[in-house]
Every structure is written in structure tokens, then in C-alpha cells.
């Protein structure tokens, strides 16, 4: 699960967000009952339309955790740099590692002496997509965006790992972690589920419980994210002039992709919530390349993701991460815009 919610959730709690959204919805329903009913119908129709594609992705994500497949991720990071970078970028592009898990996982790998290059590759690629996100992207924006986002995740991870490998001898690359109480107090367990791999986790009672728990948690989180996101999409369609965004992020302006990265990324809230919002923006003139840049940069350069990493990495290592994330997002947007 690649999303800011993993980092933002502990600050206020999903229950608090739920009641806040419910209160706002109730006020809107009293003020404009007809629009509230239309919005509710749109949300229900949107959820039903994406369910057949999203549910299998959630199943895969739950299986990876419950089977113990995620526990093998760390073992692949040791070895030849080029091979480990390739493996880390590929695994990060598909592994269901959320914002809560990725920070202690990366700190644990770095503390154990794993080189920064493969860690950087995984760190950059992992927040962009996963099986559930891939399915949701295909259902919301189409197969081209789903495939493009997955390839972009792999590409940005590969770029980050290779670039880091070029400066691997620098002292701040050899020891990228800050020496502070926060790093020392972090749980460096990877949180990837059981240590042993069992292809059929449903045959064991404990793994079956973990599978059902993971499936329910992922499904609930997607539902919590998508419901208000579809509502926002509907309201966006009503509020925006169809031609309002074309001069800023349309197909004919050269700054569409940079604007989507440097302005959109800090405002990015959640991987799932961004999909219906992005669909609405595309329908109102946003170029496909700018949309891809927004989605990719939001995953790796969001303000919440940056805030979670800044206290852990040394300043130069953090600057390298930020520069690679921005560069990769720009390239993803430009390449996708040329291809699509």
C-alpha cells in the first residue's frame, strides 16, 4: 500500500478523519440536499464500477503479506550492486509496502550495512504503485496509465539506484543515516509478515487470520480513500470550467509537466484519492504527461513522505533522494506524454 495515509494516519487517526468527513457531508446535505443525493449516487456508481478490478489486487496484496513473500525482499538487497538495484527497483514497483512499513524497513537495511544504492532504488519505486494500486489505476484511469505508472516506478527506482551507485564511495553514502535518538529508537523489523514462505497461507490458521486481517485492512482503507475521492471528482466536475486548466497543464504548454511535479506533489494527499481527482483533471484539459508526473511525484515527493524521511537521512543523502525523485517524476511525465 503506497500512500501518504500510512504516515498521516497516526497523526489524527482514520476514525477522526471519518467523523470529520461525515460531519462535512452532513452539513452539505442539509444545505444542498439535491446535490448531496447526486454526489452519493455518483460515489456508489464509481465504487461499483471499480470493484471487479480492485478486489483481485487487494487479494494479491494480502497474499504477499500472509504467505511471507514480503520477508524475502530484504534478502535480495545483498550482493552485486547492479543486480541488487535491478531487483530492488523491480520488487519495489510491485511490492505492497506502505508508508508505515517502508521507513523502518529502509532504516533496518541501512543499519544492517546494506548499500544505499539498492535501498534508494526500493525507496523510490515502492511508494508509487502495488498490486491493489495497479488494479485501481486501471479501473479509474485506464490500462495505459496503470502500465505506465508501474514502468515509471521501476524506472525511477533504477535511476535512483544507478545514480547512487556512482557516488557510492562518498562518506555520506556509506553512512547515510543520522545519528539521533529517532533512528536509534525505530523498530528495524521489516514488518513483512511471517519469516518463512508458504504459498498457500489459507491452510494455516494463523496465516489465514493474517490474510483476512490484511485483506480487510486494505479494502477498508481503499474504501475510505475512494469514497470521498469520487465525491471530490463529482464536485470538481461541477465547479471547474472545462477549459480552465488547459492553459496551465494542457497539451500545448511546455511547463505542464514541471508544474504538475513542483506544485502538484506537495499538495498530493493519497495514492487512491488522487486517482479520481486526476481523472477529473484530465477530463478538464490536463495533459496525460502532466497527470502521470503528478501521480508519480505525489508518491515519492509528497510533503508527508519527505517529512518522514528528513529526520532519518543525513542532509546530503536526503538532497540526493529529493533530486532523484523530482528528476524521475519529470522524466516519467515527459516520456508518458510522448508515448500516449
Structure description:
The protein is mostly helical and 340 residues long. It has helices at 5-12, 14-31, 33-67, 81-94, 99-111, 116-125, 131-141, 143-166, 171-174, 181-185, 205-239, 246-249, 256-267, 271-283, 288-301, 303-309, 315-339. Helix 3 packs antiparallel against helix 7. Mean pLDDT is 75; it is low at 1-15.
Number of helices: 17
Query: Structural class of the helix and strand makeup?
Result: mainly alpha
Element string (H = helix, E = strand)? HHHHHHHHHHHHHHHHH
3D shape: globular
What is the β-strand count? 0
Strand composition percent: under 5%
Low-pLDDT stretches are 1-15
> CA-to-CA gap between the ends?
26 Å
> Largest sheet, if any?
none
Work out the helicity level. over 70%
Give the averaged pLDDT, no decimals: 75
Radius of gyration: 20 Å
Structure at a glance:
This protein has 17 helices and no strands. The protein is mainly alpha-helical.
What layout of secondary structure does this protein have?
Layout lengths: L4 H8 L1 H18 L1 H35 L13 H14 L4 H13 L4 H10 L5 H11 L1 H24 L4 H4 L6 H5 L19 H35 L6 H4 L6 H12 L3 H13 L4 H14 L1 H7 L5 H25 L1
Helix pairs in contact: 2-3, 3-7, 3-11, 4-6, 4-8, 6-8, 7-8, 7-14, 8-17, 11-14, 13-15, 13-17, 14-15, 15-17
Labels describing this entry:
74% helix, disordered N terminus, mainly alpha, 340 residues, 17 helices
Amino acid at each position: 500500500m503506497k500512500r501518504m495515509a500510512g504516515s498521516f494516519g497516526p497523526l489524527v487517526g482514520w476514525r477522526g478523519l471519518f467523523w470529520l468527513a461525515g460531519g462535512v457531508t452532513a452539513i452539505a446535505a442539509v444545505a444542498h440536499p439535491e446535490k448531496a443525493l447526486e454526489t452519493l449516487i455518483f460515489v456508489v456508481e464509481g465504487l461499483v464500477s471499480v470493484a471487479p478490478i480492485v478486489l483481485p489486487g487487494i487479494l494479491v496484496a494480502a497474499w504477499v503479506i500472509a504467505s511471507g513473500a514480503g520477508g524475502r525482499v530484504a534478502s535480495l538487497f545483498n550482493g552485486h550492486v547492479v543486480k541488487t538495484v535491478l531487483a530492488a527497483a523491480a520488487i519495489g514497483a510491485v511490492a505492497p509496502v506502505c508508508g508505515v512499513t517502508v521507513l523502518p524497513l529502509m532504516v533496518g537495511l541501512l543499519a544492517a550495512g546494506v548499500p544505499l544504492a539498492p535501498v534508494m532504488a526500493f525507496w523510490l519505486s515502492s511508494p508509487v504503485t502495488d498490486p491493489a494500486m495497479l488494479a485501481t489505476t486501471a479501473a479509474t484511469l485506464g490500462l495505459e496509465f496503470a502500465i505506465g505508472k508501474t514502468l515509471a516506478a521501476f524506472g525511477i527506482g533504477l535511476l535512483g539506484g544507478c545514480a547512487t551507485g556512482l557516488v557510492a564511495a562518498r562518506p555520506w553514502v556509506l553512512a547515510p543515516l543520522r545519528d539521533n535518538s529517532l533512528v536509534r529508537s525505530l523498530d528495524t523489523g521489516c514488518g513483512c509478515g511471517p519469516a518463512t514462505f508458504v504459498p498457500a497461507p489459507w491452510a494455516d490458521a494463523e496465516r489465514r487470520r493474517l490474510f483476512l486481517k490484511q485483506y480487510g485492512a486494505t479494502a477498508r482503507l481503499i474504501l475510505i480513500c475512494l469514497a470521498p475521492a469520487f465525491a471530490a471528482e463529482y464536485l470538481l466536475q461541477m465547479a471547474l470550467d472545462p477549459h480552465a486548466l488547459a492553459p496551465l497543464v494542457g497539451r500545448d504548454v511546455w511547463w505542464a509537466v514541471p508544474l504538475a511535479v513542483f506544485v502538484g506533489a506537495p499538495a498530493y494527499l493519497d495514492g487512491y484519492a488522487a486517482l479520481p481527482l486526476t481523472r477529473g483533471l484530465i477530463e478538464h484539459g490536463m495533459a496525460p504527461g502532466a497527470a502521470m508526473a503528478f501521480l508519480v511525484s505525489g508518491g515519492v515527493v509528497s510533503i508527508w513522505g519527505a517529512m518522514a524521511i528528513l529526520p532519518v537521512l543525513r542532509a546530503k543523502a536526503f538532497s540526493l533522494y529529493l533530486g532523484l525523485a523530482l528528476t524521475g517524476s519529470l522524466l516519467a511525465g515527459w516520456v508518458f506524454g510522448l508515448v500516449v
